[in-house]
Design brief:
about 300 residues, alpha/beta, Rossmann fold, 2 domains, 6-stranded mixed sheet, 4-stranded antiparallel sheet, 10 helices, 14 strands, about 30% strand, elongated
Length: about 300
């Protein structure tokens, strides 16, 4: 049974679409990436998942329980980090965590581990939150979302403001939760982050789901770039399944759109001096989904 099961999810703000007919499922124990440009419907979807909004149409079930069922309060089992984390600025970090923990039945069993991993020191926790750096505030939000070891973590842009070392520490936290069978719903714009930790990815644009793929399938869809250097010729060869992008003094750059083996077979008959397949960029795939189709 999926931990999150969304069917035909629709929400409008007057005449403005929030999400329209979105359907997907998140299985137990997976790290699920949720991507899209600004205004695509990511935040609306998340708010519907945690009952901050109610859909105009469609169905949402979490842990197999429809959110419109009587007494469907699942907050004890969920950890949530909003995209804009706004704690009580006049409280110290330590007092804020203690205050918020009073509203949960689950104890903050992971707090010491999280504080140590994220290097959120006792000195920092004694300061009023308004004096903390943006990065330390974000760490505080991560601790608050995960300290009770939730069965489902819903995290919206969780590494915003973290330096590269702390980002790596955060990924280690996610891997630890994943190893324990916890489910993570991760909204992010950081494509390297998605590639490191997510198994499946949904992409939304204009309030609609435009892709739902495993990471491996998306990788296979990456455009492959090819550079060929030929001896004693400035005439670009015609390669089946490849489109010429640029040329300069015997150097030819292609975008490979067909099977690699077909291109390599054609190259075998040419006076090749060098062949380079640059590392494919996952961003090319996402940008193809992000960009609005031309009319």
């Amino acid at each position: 049974m999926p931990v999150i099961d969304v069917s035909d999810l629709t929400k409008y703000y007057g005449a403005v679409v929030g999400v329209d007919g979105v359907s997907f499922a998140v299985e137990e124990g997976e790290i699920f990436g949720f991507l899209g440009p600004n205004g695509a419907g990511k935040t609306t979807t998340i708010r519907l998942l945690i009952q901050l909004l109610h859909p105009d149409r469609g169905r949402v079930a979490v842990f197999g329980i429809p959110l419109d069922a009587p007494k469907a309060d699942l907050r004890e089992r969920i950890g949530y980090l909003p995209g804009e984390f706004n704690p009580y600025l006049t409280m110290t970090g330590a007092r804020f965590l203690a205050y918020m923990a009073r509203y949960r039945a689950r104890p903050p069993v992971l707090r010491p581990f999280l504080l140590d991993t994220l290097k959120l020191t006792e000195k920092a926790l004694k300061q009023p939150i308004k004096h903390l750096s943006h990065g330390n505030r974000q760490k505080l939000g991560i601790v608050l979302a995960l300290e009770h070891e939730p069965d489902l973590a819903i995290l919206d842009e969780p590494t915003l403001g973290l330096d590269p070392l702390m980002q790596e520490a955060f990924y280690d936290i996610l891997r630890r939760l994943h190893d324990k069978g916890k489910t993570i719903f991760l909204s992010s714009h950081v494509l390297s982050e998605v590639e490191k930790v997510c198994g499946r990815i949904a992409i939304v644009r204009g309030g609609q789901l435009v892709a739902l793929e495993s990471l491996e399938t998306l990788k296979q869809k990456r455009p492959r770039r090819l550079t060929v250097v030929l001896e004693e010729t400035d005439e670009p060869p015609v390669l089946p399944g490849a489109r010429l992008l640029s040329q300069e003094a015997g150097r030819f750059d292609y975008l490979v759109e067909g099977p690699i083996r077909t291109v390599l077979g054609a190259l075998a008959a040419l006076p090749v001096q060098d062949v380079v397949f640059p590392e494919p960029d996952l961003e090319d795939v996402f940008m193809a989904y992000y960009q609005e189709p031309s009319s």
